[in-house]
Amino acid sequence: MINKVVANANEAVADITDGKTLMLGGFGLCGIPENCIAALVEKGVKELTCISNNAGVDDFGIGLMLKQRQVKKMISSYVGENAEFERQLLSGELEVELIPQGTLATRCLAAGYGMPAIFTPAGVGTEVADGKETRNFNGKDYLMEYAFDADFAIVKAWKGDTAGNLIFRSTSRNFNPVMAMAGKITIAEVEELVEVGQLDPDHIHTPGVYVHRIFQGAAYEKRIEQRTVRKLDDMKI
Amino acid sequence: MLDKNGIAKRIAKEIKDGYYVNLGIGIPTLVANYIPNGVNVVLQSENGLLGMGPFPFEGEEDPDLINAGKQTITTLPGSSIFDSAMSFGMIRAQKIDLTILGAMEVSENGDIANWKIPGKMVKGMGGAMDLVASAKNIIVAMQHVNKAGESKLLPACTLPLTGVNCIKKVVTELGVFDILPEGGFKLLERAPGVTVEEIRNATAGKLYADNDVPEMIVD
After folding, report:
1. Is B65's CB within 8 Å of A171's CB?
2. ipTM score of complex
3. Cys-Cys crosslink for B144: which of A115, A167, A205, B172, Cβ 3.0 to 4.6 Å?
4. 0.90 exceeded by the pTM?
5. pLDDT by 10-residue block (mean), chain A, 237 residues
6. Using the beta-carbon criterion (under 8 Å), do A27 and B84 form an inter-chain contact?
């Protein structure tokens, strides 16, 4: 079996240089590649284009890279939790492209499935449609959206094996599997790295063919963004 | 006049047994508290969960298990987890029966604006554009007027649009409205203690109201 293991986050991101386009998995702070982000902050690489659903918070996640002014452009669907992001955006220091969340996910999927473009109704009749080709299928308008073209995809999984097979846990799955499929080079950090044969082939979410480098993260803070708890009989559902 | 919980309670009556429902952030989230007994629904959270359960008890929060509002939640027996592409696949393919979301403005032809105030607020559309472009049935939960007392039910939206010609029903603190296929807000029910005249004065868009519009029954 092909061995994809690298020693640590620093080695995994060693060839990420200024100006590259990165995909970063996660939804909010859930399922983000914390160790790679820390290594990128330490490395100080700049002028990055980051494709990620969110932009972290001021002091965690991609917010750490924004604070160091490492990001030239963000491509995201929702950036509401980050004051530094908003400041850089309104002052013109940071370029941002906001796109519908389903479009973001499906443009990753298209890249991973080898399809150049998708058609989606999201954004028809809005400023998202500006300059895009529209096609009508069965009486409904759709926008043509291109597959992403990212130099690196950086994802976080729960478990992975040395061959790069990945299993995600709970809603920390989110964008990680589709981004894992979409990078020219895909880096996976995992909470637990195991030998081949330890994971049931039927349980693999991302086959190792999509993953080029894998390592076990040194530590995970797994910060909670909105800690909500139940008082007795607060919510029934 | 209804408060936020009253709006949520009224919208909950629109949910039918067997529905898969996506609830947006804000008032729509409160709807989950008022789903009638005996009505079985599955709540979708677009970050990748069907079968969203209540908030966890203190000490049982799981950082890997959140909803689309980034709140810690729980799963339920029968829940399923999937990636973001599949999540929006089921939305686009109309497997979700009802979408309930908030709005800054709605127009009389069913346009909605809820993601951006140019020069002031830049948060992004999240999944709202996907939801409104594909959902079979969309109900908007919103305040009828803004803080300055200006109507948010308009002839045409002034803010950047989230979707066009897609909203069918609006519930505000003043009443319940259908948006007619030919355009215009049709008043279906008045909130308790609110007159048709008050609603007319608070609605900038075209309003159709019979003289005997019933008062909503809220229990």
Report:
1. yes
2. 0.95
3. B172
4. yes
5. 96 98 98 98 98 95 96 94 83 93 98 98 98 97 98 98 98 98 98 98 98 98 95 57
6. yes
